[in-house]
Amino acid sequence: MAIASIGLTGGIGSGKSTVANLLVEQGAWLVDTDAIARELTLPGGAALGAIARAFGAELIAADGALDRERMRARVFADPDAKARLEAILHPMIGAEAEARAAQAGGRPVVFDVPLLTESARWRQRVDRVLVVDCPQALQVRRVVQRSGWDAAAVQRVIEQQAPRARRRAIADAVLFNGEATRLAELARQVRILWAAWCGSASVVWNNER
Questions:
Q1: Rounded Cα distance, 167 and 156, in Å
Q2: 3-state secondary structure of 60
Q3: Which stretches in the chain have pLDDT values below 50?
Q4: Which of 2, 166, 167, 184 has the maximal Cβ count within 10 Å?
Q5: 123, HSE (Cβ side, Cα atoms, 13 Å)
Q6: Count of CB atoms situated within 10 Å of the CB of 99
């Protein structure tokens, strides 16, 4: 029986966005919760007032957006600050994600959720969980190359996220996107998985390594 929703997750630099785009090519309706979070904190974003009240106006940059670098430093240094920020953002993200999912028009919905492993609510919301996985050292190299961050900054982000083993433990399927994985091979694996979950096939495919 075809499923209605997939929760897609993976650590920073794992290639999750690439897999999300491949799923869209197969016919999925994508709801990107990270993109929603960014929109909520752009100039005029719905979350900015609550963030300014909770953390101070100095966390709002001159252009009216959230000062993401300053906020990142704050939450890395203070777990309570991280919890307060999540208490503001997560309900807003959840509501907007559901509103966007309602526009799917019957297509299977892929919820791209970086912190899905940490969220029991998201795990209960989706029919299947798909994890994109790769070695931690490769995560660091990819993010350094694409963002210009230094390796230590990337490592701090990784340490804030669920460990690889924990993500894999909650997965219904794992796509391994390692150093030698080519886009064509990743696309082939996505097509197999899509057929199994959202087409006529009944076997759940799993590519754990």
A1: 18
A2: strand
A3: 200-209
A4: 167
A5: 12
A6: 11
